[in-house]
Amino acid sequence: MRFDGLKFRADTHVQDVKLAGVLPAIEHRNFPIDELHWDARITADTVETWSGPFEHFEIAANTVWETPGQLAEHHQPVSAAWKFRYRYDPNILTIDSGEFETPSSRGTLDGVLAPRNSVMNLRLKRGPWRPTKISLTNCVALRHAPRRPRNKYQGACAGMARSWVLPAAPLFRGTFVEKHARYDGVFVDFLEGDLTYSPSELTLVHGHARGGEMEADIEGAISLTKWNFLPENKWAAEMNFEKVPAQSLDHLLGMPFPVKGSLTGAISRGGHSRAAQHYRTFRSSRGQSVWPFL
């Protein structure tokens, strides 16, 4: 403590704090992801500084997470190392370096989180996933949407590089690479593309998929309402391909395609989140035929 200006500094050390008890306490209700069900033993060294009655508070920390001896129920272990600094007055969190690893994923994180003009960089590798019961609403993190039947998804992210850009409203942009992905009867051996995710939309552009003998370019968009995919929200997707065997579309779509031979053209799907309003069409590249199919 310095009496001149009433400036304070505290050096602290914490040991063996359970992560499973910390995460629920810092969950943000308006963030579109439920709390992480991770558990670890936290060790940290911190330096806190402030003036007077906790004014101009700042904290810098180095922390290590280690696999716990006894795992909390319904949690998975995580190991990690983080170096960060938080300044209360401007409300800025700076992550100098961060890395984490679970039994099915590992990644690194760095950047600045602030009320405006934030950039967080995340690199994630995950897989292979075990078959998991999740729905499209859960994929888009729709915590408050009405319950609906769930589909199974499985696959593996061979690599992923993403960045969060957070101005007045959160915006997620990045690229991904997916291998052996399956969802609701649709299967691809390989999928990559550019994603944009915000409270109002989830879009895929410059997508490229490969399944069996077929390769195709894919783009799509889902409208959201405050992160939620509600019954009135629309979605649309289009796949363009050239000289592919029709039977390879059976493999991709998980359903019989009503054409035989070699095809060049596009398939469109879309509608509302209500399944009964979905549509599917095939369009020949020659512009000679357009028809819906089930």
Unreliable spans are 129-156, 158-162, 285-294
Beta-strand residue fraction: over 45%
Helix content: under 10%
Question: How widely separated are the two ends?
Answer: 74 Å
Taking all Cα atoms into account, the compactness measure Rg is 24 Å
Helix/strand structural class: mainly beta
- Main sheet summary: 17 strands, antiparallel
Shape: elongated
Kindly state the number of beta strands.
19
What order do the helices and strands come in, and which of them pair?
Elements (H helix, E strand, L loop, with lengths): L6 E12 H4 L15 E2 L1 E11 L3 E12 L9 E2 L1 E9 L4 E11 L2 E9 L4 E9 L5 E3 L1 H4 L11 E16 L4 E13 L2 E13 L2 E11 L2 E10 L10 E12 H8 L8 E11 L6 E6 L5 E3 L2
Parallel strand pairs: 2-5
Antiparallel strand pairs: 1-3, 3-4, 4-6, 6-7, 7-8, 8-9, 9-11, 10-11, 11-12, 12-13, 13-14, 14-15, 15-16, 16-17, 17-18, 18-19
Structure, explained:
With 294 residues, the chain is mainly beta. It has two domains: 1-115, no CATH class; 116-294, no CATH class. The protein has three helices and 19 strands. The chain has helices at residues 19-22, 136-139, 246-253, and strands at residues 7-18, 38-39, 41-51, 55-66, 76-77, 79-87, 92-102, 105-113, 118-126, 132-134, 151-166, 171-183, 186-198, 201-211, 214-223, 234-245, 262-272, 279-284, 290-292. The strands form two sheets. The protein has a 17-stranded antiparallel β-sheet that branches. It has a two-stranded parallel ribbon with strand order 2-5. A hairpin with a 4-residue loop joins strand 6 and strand 7 (92-102). The longest helix is centred in the C-terminal third of the chain and has 8 residues, at 246-253. The termini are far apart. The model is unreliable at 129-156, 158-162 and 285-294 (pLDDT under 50).
